[in-house]
Structure formats: C-alpha cells, structure tokens
Design a protein that fits this description.
Layout (H helix, E strand, L loop, with lengths): L5 H28 L3 H23 L7 H10 L1 H25 L1
Helix pairs in contact: 3-4
C-alpha cells in the first residue's frame, strides 16, 4: 500500500502555493506596466544574472561553506560576530540610507 506521509503532503502544499503564484505574477505585472512588462522581466533577468555573478565571484574567494552568512561575517568582522545577522543588516541599511541622503 502506498501512502502520502507528512513530509510529502507538506511539500505538495508548498508546491501548490508557489506554483499558483507563478501564474498570477505575470498578470499583475502586465496590469501595472502594460506593454512594458516584457521589458521589466528582461531588466529583472539581467539584474538577477549580475547578482548571481557577484555571488559566484565572492564564493570563489572562500574555501569553506557558508554562503551569505560567511561573506557577511568576513566583511563586517567583529561587528557581525557581536550583533549577528541582524546587526550586519542594520549596518548595511544604514549605509544605503546615508548614500541616498547624500545624493
């Protein structure tokens, strides 16, 4: 007898939620941007490729696993160790705010 376990049932539910959103998002973008929506998707795709290339470059500089956590810990040093991920995030947000104000 085959049965669907708790893990499989949870995965099916998550897949349904994420999968249904894929069909709603293009309609929402088309409603907001009209004929420029394909251009928005193209620009978004280019931005994602640039972000992926940045992660690949940074990832090639470390021999250990850890992803963004490791990168932030190495970039912020003792500040990151003392305040954790929330501390690094607040420092990064402060830098963005200062940059926008100074422009």
């Amino acid at each position: 007898m085959r049965a669907v376990g708790l893990l499989s049932l949870t995965a099916i539910a998550i897949n349904g939620m994420i999968g249904s959103r894929i069909f709603v998002l293009p309609a929402t973008v088309a409603k907001l941007l009209g004929p420029l929506s394909p251009l928005a998707y193209l620009i978004s795709g280019v931005a994602i490729v640039l972000i992926v290339l940045c992660f690949a470059e940074v990832g090639s500089r470390f021999e250990r696993a850890g992803g963004p956590y490791l990168y932030a810990r190495e970039a912020f040093g003792s500040l990151f160790r003392a305040r954790g991920l929330a501390g690094a995030r607040s420092v990064a947000q402060g830098a963005v705010v200062k940059t926008r104000v100074s422009m």
